């Protein structure tokens, strides 16, 4: 039997650990603020010193903040808030009852391990009396893409500089002393001092610009924000330019990229209209304008700051001859995700990071919405299982996973871990399951009530459940389903057993683990069961387009009657709506396999074909079934023409290959090449102008595997394309196959091809194409070129936000690189 783990996997794990320890370790303790004092308004004036000669040390800033607050309890004798890496130079606290008296007793105390700043007071604060804490301070414009940070770009041969913010999740405190938790919402008024030749942007429109009477600076004052959390405050100072389209929606970019803003603005305009109507809450009731900012250096994919959303360039700017159709669809998906945050995350914010799924789960769910007027989003709902469900199931299958509501947050690392597939992908998958369980129109009604009830406030899972109860019926058992999947970690595998006459079914459930683990579930199975909405379809009963819940599984085992299926299949979890895996008895598996191998796959839906592939391969991986059953089923792929099942198959093949020594994968590679022969001939190498995003993605997927596994025709044609390009760099390799062609060229061309493509990378100024070239360079396979590439990755030639991704690609493109990376 093939084992899912090998020594190579352990080496890769050590490499990941080393990289994380070197660059991303953050063990600061999380101590929650009390609610003795509540802020209502911040007024901040900041001067960023971006260049030498700006009046202060280069890449630093001076600022002053006045925080308006009230004591909510009696006998409040201290004020505690957050700060990090700030130099406090002066502080005063006055209150409305005596504006002349400073109530601060002494210089504040600071706890580095908790990042808490505490002011002891001369007298207790009067309850509900407005007080004003003014703090003068300075700080660094960082180089780690957190807080107020620095970035650079080239324009006409000159190096340009900018300063921009990234405050989520706990970095507002790097810019200003503040109550840096989501629940402490307030209004913010920002004043930015900047040079005449630069511009500043923030969440709100510019109110006025004044000339500084004492220096060669201008002061930009922005309108006061509505109630937002501190991590939502954002601004930028740069030489960027902007373009505003319909409904005060625009894009801010470096000047040479302004010609590529049309698509991003189009997506944003249409998505805002769609979401405003869907949630029955117009965007304009929350914010008066919307700018999308494309940044050269950005640690995240994007950040939903109200009114000033920041993005990586590759995820916001569509450059036609540099981005594939798949990349174009991804841009639409990312923009939709960030815009959905205006309702889930901005207008209504999770009460703390323990409830992050209320922000990110909903944004991930709605990023797959078909936006009217944006053709590229029409296929996104079909890809939800790839982007969310299967990603979540993999991450949630270990004994170290955590629930959607995770109350065990003790360090900043714990918060960072929340920003992963559980909050995003599992959150979205559970929301999708709940929507189909109670009905999508009922879910829409519940969400409208939730937004109306919690607008400009924070929310917890209890607030959402209250609204779901209002639209659900008793039979839905919404409380049971909700708490099973929200409060419990992991998920179940449901095993289906038919009786001899195949007119009755018994379902049993237990928690699924990808590896054999020691678990309390084994000794106490009732502590690990879920209330599961069960859907099913057979050739004789129901339709794949009907996702109505047929049975609510309330116990570890249930039995019920079905329309007899004596000679055909029955499939559970229609369109993979439910967040669980399915196993079957031997006879039922064989009936399903027969159906898949029949003409037109016997009408089995493509999402269920993908689900069956993923369930079978993962059940084999965890020793629920033998691998021979899984590989017998995969034979049907010889007649599969849809992208989504193939995507799931390739992900599972790669999982095996990356964890198996190269000399043991020869038979598997031969097997995969036999499976893809027909679909390779159908798709061919060269794209057709009529291709849509799914066909484009499918071709790229099959070509990567065909060339990687040595299919002769693929290698010959890719080599031919690369040689044409190498001889004439004006030759246009179609963008949808460019990465595959470049990869073959580098893998087979040695040092000469590597150096040729590296020079192209150095000349390239579009991030999308830079990523394509870096991923191809990661195909290099000699000791010398791998070492050379590693040197380049960790030099200034590769931007900080690309280093980890490029390093990972180098490891995964070729298992032989694991040892080389470790030696390096």
Q: Could you explain how this protein is built, in words?
A:
The protein is an alpha+beta fold and 824 residues long. The protein has four domains: 26-144 and 163-235, tricorn interacting facor f3 domain (Immunoglobulin-like), CATH 2.60.40.1730; 349-487, Neutral Protease, domain 2 (Orthogonal Bundle); 491-659, Immunoglobulin-like; 671-685 and 701-823, Zincin-like fold. The protein has 23 helices and 29 strands. Strands 4-7-2-1-10-13-12 form a seven-stranded mixed β-sheet, with no helix packed on it. A hairpin with a 4-residue loop joins strand 15 and strand 16.
SSE layout:
Blueprint: H1 7-23, E1 37-49, E2 60-71, E3 76-82, E4 86-95, E5 109-111, E6 116-125, E7 130-140, E8 147-155, E9 158-166, E10 187-194, E11 199-202, E12 206-211, E13 218-222, E14 235-238, E15 241-244, E16 249-253, H2 262-278, E17 290-295, E18 302-303, E19 308-312, H3 325-340, E20 348-350, H4 357-366, H5 384-395, H6 412-418, H7 421-438, H8 440-454, E21 457-459, H9 461-471, H10 478-487, E22 492-498, E23 504-511, H11 520-523, E24 532-534, E25 536-538, E26 551-553, E27 557-561, E28 570-572, E29 581-584, H12 586-597, H13 606-621, H14 627-634, H15 643-658, H16 666-683, H17 693-708, H18 712-727, H19 738-763, H20 767-777, H21 783-793, H22 800-813, H23 817-823
Parallel strand pairs: 1-10, 16-17, 17-19, 20-21, 22-29
Antiparallel strand pairs: 1-2, 2-7, 3-6, 4-7, 5-6, 8-9, 9-14, 10-13, 11-14, 12-13, 15-16, 18-19, 22-23, 23-27, 24-26, 25-28
Domain ERAP1-like C-terminal: 569-824
Cofactor: Zn(2+)
Pfam families: ERAP1_C, Peptidase_M1, Peptidase_M1_N
């Amino acid at each position: 039997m093939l084992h899912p783990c090998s020594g190579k996997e352990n080496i890769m794990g050590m490499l990941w650990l080393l990289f994380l320890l070197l660059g991303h370790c953050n063990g600061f303790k999380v101590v929650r603020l009390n609610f003795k004092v509540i802020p209502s308004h911040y007024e901040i004036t900041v001067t960023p010193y971006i260049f030498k000669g700006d009046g202060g040390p280069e890449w630093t800033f001076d600022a002053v903040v006045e925080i308006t607050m009230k004591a909510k309890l009696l006998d409040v004798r201290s004020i505690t808030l957050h700060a990090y890496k700030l130099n406090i130079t002066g502080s005063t606290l006055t209150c409305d009852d005596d504006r002349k008296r400073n109530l601060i007793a002494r210089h504040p105390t600071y706890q580095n391990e908790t990042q808490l700043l505490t002011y002891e007071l001369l007298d207790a604060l009067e309850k509900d009396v407005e007080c004003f804490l003014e703090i003068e301070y300075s700080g660094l414009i960082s180089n780690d893409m957190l807080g107020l940070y620095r970035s650079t770009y080239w324009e006409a041969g000159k190096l340009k500089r900018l300063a921009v913010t990234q405050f989520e999740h706990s970095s507002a405190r790097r810019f200003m002393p503040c109550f840096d938790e989501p629940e402490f919402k307030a209004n913010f008024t920002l004043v930015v001092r900047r040079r005449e030749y630069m511009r500043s942007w923030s969440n709100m429109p510019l109110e006025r610009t004044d000339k500084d009477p004492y220096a060669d600076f201008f002061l930009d004052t922005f309108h006061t924000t509505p109630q937002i959390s501190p991590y939502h405050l954002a601004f930028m100072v740069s030489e960027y330019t902007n373009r505003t389209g319909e409904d005060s929606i625009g894009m801010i970019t470096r000047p040479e990229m302004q010609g590529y803003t049309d698509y991003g603005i189009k997506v944003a305009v249409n998505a805002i209209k769609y979401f405003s109507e869907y949630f029955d809450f117009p965007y304009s009731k929350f914010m008066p304008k919307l700018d999308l900012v494309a940044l050269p250096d950005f640690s995240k994919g994007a950040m939903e700051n109200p009114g000033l959303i920041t993005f990586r360039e590759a995820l916001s700017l569509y450059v036609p001859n540099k981005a594939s159709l798949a990349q174009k669809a991804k841009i639409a998906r990312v923009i939709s995700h960030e815009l959905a945050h205006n309702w889930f995350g901005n207008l209504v914010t999770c009460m703390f990071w323990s409830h992050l799924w209320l922000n990110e789960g909903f944004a991930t769910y709605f990023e797959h919405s078909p936006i009217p007027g944006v053709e590229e989003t029409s296929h996104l709902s079909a890809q939800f299982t790839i982007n969310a469900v299967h990603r979540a199931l993999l991450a949630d299958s270990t004994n170290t996973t955590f629930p959607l509501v995770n109350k065990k947050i003790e360090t900043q690392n714990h918060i960072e871990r929340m920003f992963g597939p559980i909050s995003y992908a599992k959150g979205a998958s559970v929301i999708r399951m709940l929507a189909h369980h109670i009905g999508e129109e009922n879910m829409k009604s519940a969400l409208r009530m939730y937004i109306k009830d919690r607008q400009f406030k924070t929310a917890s899972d209890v607030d959402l459940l209250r609204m779901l109860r209002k639209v659900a019926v008793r039979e839905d058992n919404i409380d049971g389903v909700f708490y099973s999947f929200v409060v419990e970690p992991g998920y179940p595998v449901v095993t289906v057993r038919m009786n001899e006459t195949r007119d009755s079914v018994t379902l049993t459930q237990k928690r699924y683990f990808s590896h054999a683990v020691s678990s309390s579930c084994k000794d106490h199975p009732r502590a690990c069961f879920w209330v599961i909405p069960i859907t099913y379809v057979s050739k004789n009963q129901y339709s794949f387009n009907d996702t109505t819940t047929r049975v609510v599984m309330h116990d570890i085992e249930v039995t019920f009657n079905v329309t007899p299926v004596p000679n055909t299949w029955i499939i559970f979890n229609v369109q993979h709506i439910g967040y669980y895996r399915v196993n079957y008895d031997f006879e039922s598996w064989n009936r399903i396999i027969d159906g898949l191998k029949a003409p037109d796959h016997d009408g089995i839906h493509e999402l269920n074909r993908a689900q069956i592939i993923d369930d079978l391969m993962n059940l084999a991986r965890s020793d629920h079934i033998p691998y021979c059953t899984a590989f017998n089923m995969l034979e049907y792929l010889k007649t599969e023409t849809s992208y989504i099942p193939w995507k799931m198959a390739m992900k599972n093949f790669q999982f095996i290959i990356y964890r198996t020594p190269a000399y043991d994968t020869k038979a598997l590679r031969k097997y995969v090449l036999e499976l893809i022969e027909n679909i390779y001939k159908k798709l061919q190498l060269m794209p057709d102008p009529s291709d849509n995003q799914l066909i484009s993605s499918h071709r790229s997927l099959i070509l990567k595997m065909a060339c990687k596994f040595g299919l002769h025709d693929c290698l010959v044609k890719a080599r031919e394309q690369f040689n044409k390009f190498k001889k004439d760099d004006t030759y246009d390799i179609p963008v949808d196959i460019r990465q595959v062609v470049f990869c073959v060229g580098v893998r087979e061309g040695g040092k000469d091809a590597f150096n040729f493509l590296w020079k192209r990378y150095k000349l390239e100024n579009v991030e999308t194409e830079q990523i394509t070239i870096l991923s191809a360079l990661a195909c290099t396979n000699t000791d010398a070129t791998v070492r050379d590439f590693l040197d380049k990755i960790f030099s200034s030639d590769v931007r900080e936000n690309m280093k980890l991704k490029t390093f990972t690609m180098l490891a995964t493109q070729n298992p032989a690189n694991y040892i080389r990376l470790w030696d390096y």
